[in-house]
Task: inverse folding
């Protein structure tokens, strides 16, 4: 079977403009497991697009060798709307410049509609319940009528991923170690991916706030399992957001390495024929609510006292901010213990600037857990 390419075209914001999303399909579309992978939902994050693009080449090769046992779909660039946004010569792809909304928030929560559809139909057969819920999810999404290009894009991307067994949404941070975000029910299924990619942090939250893409897909399963606790409801869709290091970590070398790790994960899942040895995990999962986000108490020039990947303890100085008028140095210290795994790519701090994240083991935060 050859690679199936489907493209979806939708109207842009202004008159006369259009955008296109490409969906590449490998293997029998009816086969399971189905793994869906997308890059560039935040359109100014290159690593995911590079990895997805190279992964598509690897999958084309695997398909030519008749090694596909399951189904893989790849969206190499998920956000053509964001790809077309520029501000004063710089690419701007995280927020919709029209209204400031983050492209990875505000996905529809289909839990209530699906619960209504399946309440009287769920039985004692877990596999049959998964089938019913998938069917109801697809039907509930089909009834939505998105208005405008950003919500049309959200609706389309969600539709591509909704019935998949595993979904990988490829992103990056400013500067970062490899890490990923997932939900409690999906940790076990995604642990092999984290090990293969060499993740230094795996951050877990049931609900992180704002309904990002991965949680809109995985969330209903956990919510339905809790609501209908007398019925077996296995996790039908294990999802995660992979942060492929930092914004500048874009190269064919890194893209090939990360695509090879994902390909190995597909072998591990039985989607591709073969056998692999799983490496040792480099970290244990930690609660997203335990991830400390350092912020700048004053404005000034930013200088880091520790490198990314360092294990810091409470009281350790992570960053210093130098006042431009007085030269006074303000230290910013960790208050938790864990791996310093992400920081911004810029070194001029305004008051309140996010200075970095530390993967602490004890949950202490409440409310929205993600950056804006
Ligand atoms: Zn992102």
Result:
């Amino acid at each position: 079977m050859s690679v199936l390419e489907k493209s979806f075209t939708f109207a842009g914001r202004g008159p006369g403009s259009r955008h296109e999303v490409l969906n590449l399909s490998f293997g029998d579309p009816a086969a399971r497991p189905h793994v869906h992978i997308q890059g560039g939902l935040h359109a100014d994050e290159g690593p995911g697009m590079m990895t997805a693009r190279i992964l598509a080449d690897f999958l084309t090769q695997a398909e030519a060798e008749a090694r596909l046992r399951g189904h893989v779909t790849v969206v190499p660039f998920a956000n053509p709307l964001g790809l077309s946004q520029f501000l004063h010569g710089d690419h701007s792809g995280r927020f919709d410049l029209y209204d400031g909304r983050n492209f990875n928030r505000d996905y529809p929560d289909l839990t209530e509609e699906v619960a209504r559809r399946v309440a009287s139909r769920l039985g004692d057969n877990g596999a049959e319940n998964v089938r019913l819920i998938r069917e109801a999810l697809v039907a509930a999404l089909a009834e939505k009528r998105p208005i405008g290009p950003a919500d049309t894009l959200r609706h389309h991307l969600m539709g591509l991923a909704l019935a998949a067994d595993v979904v990988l949404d490829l992103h990056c941070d400013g500067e970062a170690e490899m890490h990923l975000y997932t939900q409690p029910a999906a940790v076990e299924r995604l642990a092999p991916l984290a090990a293969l990619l060499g993740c230094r942090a795996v951050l877990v939250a049931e609900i992180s706030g704002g309904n990002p893409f991965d949680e809109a897909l995985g969330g209903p399963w956990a919510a339905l399992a809790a609501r209908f606790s007398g019925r077996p409801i296995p996790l039908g869709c294990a999802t995660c957001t992979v942060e492929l290091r930092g914004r500048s970590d874009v190269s064919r070398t890194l893209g090939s390495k990360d695509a090879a790790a994902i390909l190995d994960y597909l072998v591990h899942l039985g989607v591709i024929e073969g056998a692999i040895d799983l490496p040792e995990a480099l970290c244990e999962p930690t609660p997203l609510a335990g991830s400390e986000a350092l912020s700048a108490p004053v404005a000034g020039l930013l200088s880091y006292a520790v490198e990314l990947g360092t294990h810091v303890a409470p009281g350790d100085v992570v960053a210093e901010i130098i006042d431009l008028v007085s030269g006074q140095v303000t230290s910013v210290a960790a208050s938790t213990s864990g791996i310093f795994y992400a920081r911004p790519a810029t070194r001029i701090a305004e008051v309140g600037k996010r200075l970095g994240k530390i993967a602490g083991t004890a949950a202490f935060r409440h409310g929205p857990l993600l950056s804006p």
